[in-house]
């Protein structure tokens, strides 16, 4: 009897141990907590921390659709050719664009480390005649087909504190400001844009700021031809009533100098006004425009003659609607006027209707755009969804 009890007890003990071991074998580990994206409000709205880093990232951009009609010289219209008889005729200028932007920011012991990129993708037809001439002088009629216009890298810079390097627009334009809030603000041009830069920006914190920019330029006549860079310097004083600013640029290709001064005035809460004047030397700007479309101008003094003036303003009817106007002229007797009304249908979606006028002077920088009239008028309707 004792032997029987001993055997039964041993069997029970073995079953218990086996069961415990089986239970231990299928034990599931506790899941690790998920790492959610955290909002970063240091640099403004829209930023979030890249998981596992101290870098804040923002992604944005816009989708835009332009419909232009009128004369080519106003920058709004386009030319094409009849498919049956080859006659030249007016057509729409249309362009669809997707722009992708990124911003990053991170605090370091040497100041804020920032980056900014902007890449643009375009599809549409051209704002000129649809023809080209071959090397043997034969004119080929191509119409004005819509096509993918390629991808452009408009900005790609790194900034640590006040030092910026990379692809930017020239400080000759960005520091002093663009010529108003109209779409066609270059009817009388006020400087070229795309360039690589090594730039230092100084902000005294009391309204006074300054910039020094070493630039490479771009294009046939704009890109530097040696190790000597273009140089741009600027000063600005900003207060509640507005700002006074000025820039001076040295074009190392032609050893010419150009400058602009600007006055901005916040007349009321609803009205803002500006006037900007430019002056540049042109003794060595000898490239003929018939040989090089951008010839005779250099990189900074884009206007005709020595001087040019731009002026205009914005009137805000309410939070959704604004009226913008700009007028410009230069020594070459070119005159441009642009005016529009911009309306925010809903937050992030803006429709802008603009009318543009261009008078081509005796000494013009606009002939290469195929302006075939002394006086050109056009209109542009723009839809833009920004995010």
What integer value in Å does the Rg equal? Answer: 31 Å
| Range of strand content | over 45%
Biggest β-sheet description: 16 strands, antiparallel, barrel
Shape: globular
Q: Which CATH class is shown?
A: Mainly Beta
> Helix and strand succession?
HEEEEEEEEEEHEEEEEEEEEEE
The residue fraction in helices comes out at under 10%
Short recap of the structure:
It contains 2 helices and 21 strands.
Write the layout of secondary structure elements.
Blueprint: H1 2-25, E1 48-49, E2 56-70, E3 78-81, E4 88-91, E5 93-108, E6 111-124, E7 131-133, E8 139-141, E9 147-160, E10 163-169, H2 171-174, E11 194-203, E12 208-215, E13 230-239, E14 242-251, E15 256-266, E16 271-280, E17 307-316, E18 321-330, E19 335-346, E20 349-359, E21 375-386
Antiparallel strand pairs: 1-2, 2-5, 2-21, 3-4, 5-6, 6-9, 7-8, 9-10, 10-11, 11-12, 12-13, 13-14, 14-15, 15-16, 16-17, 17-18, 18-19, 19-20, 20-21
Structure description:
GO terms for molecular function: porin activity. Forms passive diffusion pores that allow small molecular weight hydrophilic materials across the outer membrane. It contains 2 helices and 21 strands. The protein is mainly beta and about 375 residues long. The protein has one domain: Porin (Beta Barrel), CATH 2.40.160.10. The strands form 3 sheets. It has a 16-stranded antiparallel barrel with strand order 2-5-6-9-10-11-12-13-14-15-16-17-18-19-20-21. The chain has a two-stranded antiparallel ribbon with strand order 3-4. Strands 7-8 form a two-stranded antiparallel sheet. It starts with a helix and ends with a strand. The model has no long low-confidence stretch (mean pLDDT about 90).
């Amino acid at each position: 009897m004792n032997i029987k009890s001993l055997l039964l007890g041993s069997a029970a003990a073995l079953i218990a141990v086996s069961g415990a071991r089986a239970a231990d074998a299928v034990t599931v580990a506790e899941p690790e907590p998920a790492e959610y994206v955290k909002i970063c409000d240091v640099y403004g709205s829209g930023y979030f921390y890249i998981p596992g880093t101290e870098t804040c990232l923002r992604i944005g951009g816009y989708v835009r659709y332009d419909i232009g009609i009128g004369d080519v010289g106003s920058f709004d219209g386009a030319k094409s050719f009849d498919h049956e008889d080859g006659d030249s005729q007016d057509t729409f200028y249309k362009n669809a664009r997707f722009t992708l932007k990124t911003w990053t920011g991170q605090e370091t012991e040497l100041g804020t480390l920032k980056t900014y990129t902007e890449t643009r993708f375009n599809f549409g037809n051209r704002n000129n005649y649809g023809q080209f001439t071959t090397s043997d002088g034969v004119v080929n009629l191509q119409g004005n087909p819509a096509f993918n216009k390629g991808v452009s890298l408009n900005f790609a810079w790194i900034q640590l504190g006040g030092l910026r390097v990379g692809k930017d627009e020239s400080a000759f334009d960005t520091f002093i400001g663009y010529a108003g809030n109209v779409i066609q603000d270059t009817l009388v041009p006020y400087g070229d844009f795309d360039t690589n830069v090594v730039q230092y920006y100084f902000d005294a914190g009391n309204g006074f700021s300054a910039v020094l920019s070493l630039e490479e330029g771009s294009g046939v006549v704009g890109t530097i031809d040696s190790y000597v860079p273009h140089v741009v310097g600027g000063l600005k004083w900003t207060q509640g009533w507005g700002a006074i600013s000025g820039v001076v640029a040295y074009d190392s290709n032609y050893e010419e100098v150009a400058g602009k001064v600007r006055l901005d005035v916040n007349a009321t809460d609803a009205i803002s006004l500006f006037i900007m004047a430019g002056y540049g030397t042109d003794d060595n700007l000898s490239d003929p425009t018939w040989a090089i479309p951008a010839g005779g101008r250099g990189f900074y003094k884009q206007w005709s003659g020595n001087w040019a003036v731009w002026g205009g303003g914005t009137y805000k009817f309410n939070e959704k609607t604004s009226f913008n106007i700009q007028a410009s002229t230069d020594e070459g007797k070119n005159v441009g006027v642009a005016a529009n009304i911009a309306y925010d249908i809903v937050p992030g979606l803006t429709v802008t209707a603009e009318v543009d006028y261009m008078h081509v002077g005796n000494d013009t920088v606009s002939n290469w755009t195929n302006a075939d009239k002394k006086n050109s008028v056009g209109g542009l309707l723009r839809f833009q969804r920004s995010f």
